[in-house]
Design goal:
With about 250 residues, the chain is an alpha/beta fold. The chain contains six helices and eleven strands. The longest helix is centred in the middle third of the chain and has 15 residues.
Length: about 250
């Protein structure tokens, strides 16, 4: 069970990442990866299980803060998790990484998509800050063996939108997928400024919004969240406000 309110559970076949935008500044996954390796180190090697894969993913930077090393790892043992579960579940795919990180091999992504297709009882939410690679992968892969016009209904494709500039960088790819029938969503979290989503121009299936939480959280104003809700209401787009954040 996940503590992330908009999903049911997390499924981490890929772990490790690197920062790419302001939304990554206070990434929760870095501290979690560090703690996971600390827990692993306290155990005998034969008892570490999947925690052993967190070795070398984080480091202590010169400012004494934990950071990613840039190492990205494939955890094959995790592939079987959804296959063993018959009861429908909503999975957030790779909460500890980005499925379309530049260091993630295409064959790893292939393995993950095969499992998602084999388990139609589950819903999979993929959230990336690298939607251009996601678009390229989806179009090339499904054009090859399934056809672009036949999206996989239990796979949702999303991108993070922390500030207005992200629209120019990330939304065009997601819009192309939406127009091809894929379920798409925006995650406006952590919301760092007021954002005009231009939903009529950039249609989307669902929107998540929320302020930043935790130590050092940056401000999120109530009016910014209300603005997103009102935009979604005008276009009848479902919206989920996760939290106001720790600094509003």
């Amino acid at each position: 069970m996940s503590k992330i309110e908009w999903t049911g559970d997390t499924w981490n076949v890929i772990i490790g990442c690197s920062k790419i935008s302001p939304g990554c500044t206070n990434c929760y996954a870095i501290d979690q990866a560090y703690r996971n390796w600390e827990m692993a180190r306290a155990l005998p090697e034969e008892n570490r299980g999947r925690l052993a894969y967190y070795d070398g993913l984080t480091k202590i930077a010169h400012d004494k803060k934990r950071q990613w090393t840039g190492k990205v790892v494939f955890v094959p043992e995790a592939l079987e998790i959804p296959l063993k579960r018959k009861k429908p579940q909503i999975y957030f795919v790779n909460s500890m990484s980005d499925l379309f990180h530049e260091r993630v091999k295409n064959e790893w992504i292939d393995e993950i998509f095969k499992v998602m297709e084999q388990t139609p009882q589950h819903t999979y939410q993929i959230l990336t800050k690298r939607p251009d690679r996601m678009l390229d992968y989806i179009l090339s892969t499904y054009q090859t063996y399934q056809g672009v016009s036949t999206p996989v209904r239990n796979i949702w494709l999303g991108s993070s939108i922390e500030h207005q500039d992200c629209l120019d960088d990330r939304i065009p790819a997601l819009t192309k997928l939406n127009k091809r029938g894929w379920t798409t969503f925006y995650s406006c979290e952590p919301l760092l400024e007021s954002v005009d989503l231009h939903i009529p121009e950039y249609p989307v299936s669902w929107v998540i919004a929320g302020g930043e939480s935790g130590h050092g959280a940056r401000p999120c104003h109530y009016e910014w969240l209300l603005n997103i809700v009102e935009q979604c209401q005008v276009t009848n787009t479902p919206v989920f406000v996760k939290q106001l954040g720790s600094n509003y």
